Amino acid sequence: MGYFKDSMKKTYSKHGDLVVSKNLQAVANALDNLKRIDYPADAWANLPDEPLPIAEKYQGHAMQFVEQVQGPMVMLRGDEIPVSHLPIGGVTDRKSVV
Question: Residue 26's domain spans which residues?
Fold first, then answer.
């Protein structure tokens, strides 16, 4: 936590001591109000892997970029996207993106 507080002091020091102290106090308040929530681990571990409802918007789309790149990114599966699916230069036609 020390590194975090030092980083906050460095980042916000240009805004004055009041801003630094308010940010440090906000972090202290957040830590003081954390509550543990117990839940049965097997309830989460055994859930079926279902696509998010928004997935339908990206599946079978006419644009390859939307289906092969944008869709997986929205579904938090960006690590699975092959580099070959990314557009050359990183630019695509904005009008055709969802």
Answer: 2-32
